Amino acid sequence: MTGKRSNSIWYVSLAVIWFVILWFGLTSGSFEIGSGDLWNILQYKLGFAELKLDDLSVSVLTKIRIPRVILAAIVGASLSIAGAGLQGLFRNPLADPGLIGVSTGASAFAAFAIVLGIPALFSVSWLNMFALNVFTFIGALTVMFLAIMIAHSRGNTLLTTLLLTGIALNALGASITGLLTFLSEDEQLRNISFWMLGSLGGANWTTTLVLTIINIPVIILLLTRGKVLNALSLGEENAGYLGVNVRREKSIIIILSSLLVSTCVSLTGVIGFVGLVVPHVIRLLKGGDNKFILFNSIIVGSGFLILADTISRTIIIPQELPIGIITSLAGAPLFLYIIIKNKQKAGV
Amino acid sequence: MIRLDNISLQLNRKTLLQDISTSFIPGEHTVILGPNGAGKSTLLRVAALGIQPTGGTISYPSVDISSQAQLSKVRTFLTQQSMFNSELTVRELVFMGRYPYYHRTPDATDIEIVENALQRFSIKHLSEQKLQFLSGGELQRTHLARVYAQLFTDEQISSIRNKFLFMDEPVNNLDIKHQEELITLATELTENGVGVVSVLHDINMALHTADKLILLKKGLLAGELNPTEITENILEDLYELPFEQTGDLIFSPKRIRSKIYQIF
């Protein structure tokens, strides 16, 4: 079922669903903006029509909602393609972008910053705002390099060692976070648990632009690794015979994937399940060609996260449900359904 | 010509290959023979530069051997099949043979070469099948089609001249018909100027297809000779098992208790 016809049906349906989700994301929220308003603003910006809306609607849409939807799209695409890259590299469909401990390590650093009140140490307001993000990003990178260094042996990255290192670092990060939770006060505890469940509530043009500038090039680089991942699925030695510089490519894929997760986790907290489930679902539905999986992870992942974020901010207006709860609540049953369906199809 | 000069390989203080010098010539089928653990597969992998030797030098014609990308255009390798979890289709696996040649998308030449390979190994009807649903023999033919497709620079058969094909026990999992087809393939490739180097366990198949035999025993070169020079004594020394010649270039282990004779 990988014929040209079935592929065009797939892409057309994907595009339709994606734009419906985008429209849903832009028109839903605690502040009412209808599809007519959306159309009017679009025409106004392109110079085709007079603006019929009041200033407040315009600024809610352009200053809050649009950056947030873009942020959701990029985070979803980043986490999904990172998951696809690591699943391909480890030849394990259960690999998660947090596999080598990056997310958990970053959370431990975040909890540390929250409990010590590090953001408050900076009197300059923009530093104050981003101190937590920057601190978390440094944490994520620290864990990434630690894991890679431990798994490094004579110019080669040993994947099994990296996997085990990840398990240890994940446990270490989780226990440090646990300890800090125990030591924290009520307000801090709330902040930590909010962090652990993820939120796009901090979205504005600055965060969105920062994420765009860093992640889009990384996503594009990772996208070119489809052939390499296919070759690696035959084992490292065979990939070498197919012309792949195995040592270099392994490092590249690990670093690119972890970098994507690091930037996302430092801006939005931990959003679970997306990076695991999106590439896996694509693989179950459309086969194991990594070129296809990487590319489609971007589309499916971004759509999935825009949807999840829209639900998270509309389901209990005026409050927001942490997005991590939505992604897991929606993702897990969907995942189970597809696994069961696939089991029947395989007849085993 | 691939030249191996005084090649040694030690892993964890164990000597796997010691001081081996030989060469592989385009247009010739070289078969490596020897008992289990003699280092046959290891020699094959070292010669193909899948493993770096710890001593000695290897030279390839007009290729920078430190570049996997360049090497992949002059030699291909059929490894013994290990378990790998893949949901790829047969066609995509054969396309991997073209990975060294195209950057982003395959061109008409790549597609034609892949189609020819699918045809050549009678797996065209399986093109869209996932690998996990293939039989052992079908999977082996798919891998053969992949390494075959990798030999071509362009769709002309002349573009495979002076390239090398390494095969580690290629007849595993193949029935007698496909075994014979593999022998035909090896002959056809050598006639078109490919250097074929393989590890075979079937002595008689080796004798009937090889242009040159390399005998390995305990990591040492035990002999390098023409198939016609093989005698019972040479095989007896190599395998530490008595042999008898039962036909023209047909050798069998001396069977003291054969089931057929037990009837009488």
Automatic annotation (TrEMBL), chain A:
The chain crosses the membrane at residues 9-26, 66-86, 98-124, 130-151, 158-183, 203-223, 252-280, 292-311, 323-340. Coiled coil: none annotated. The keyword Chaperone does not apply. It is a multi-pass membrane protein. The keyword Transmembrane applies. It comes from the Bacteria. It is found in: Cell membrane. Keywords: Cell membrane, Membrane, Transmembrane, Transmembrane helix, Transport. Belongs to the binding-protein-dependent transport system permease family. FecCD subfamily. PANTHER family: ABC TRANSPORTER PERMEASE PROTEIN MJ0876-RELATED, FERRIC ENTEROBACTIN TRANSPORT SYSTEM PERMEASE PROTEIN. This is Iron ABC transporter permease.
UniProtKB/TrEMBL annotation, chain B:
One of its GO terms (molecular function) is ATP binding. Signal peptide: none annotated. Pfam families: ABC_tran (PF00005). Residues 2-243 form the ABC transporter domain. Keywords: ATP-binding, Nucleotide-binding, Translocase, Transport. Gene3D superfamilies: P-loop containing nucleotide triphosphate hydrolases (3.40.50.300). PANTHER family: HEMIN IMPORT ATP-BINDING PROTEIN HMUV. Part of the ABC transporter complex HmuTUV involved in hemin import. Responsible for energy coupling to the transport system. This is Heme ABC transporter ATP-binding protein. It comes from Wandonia haliotis.
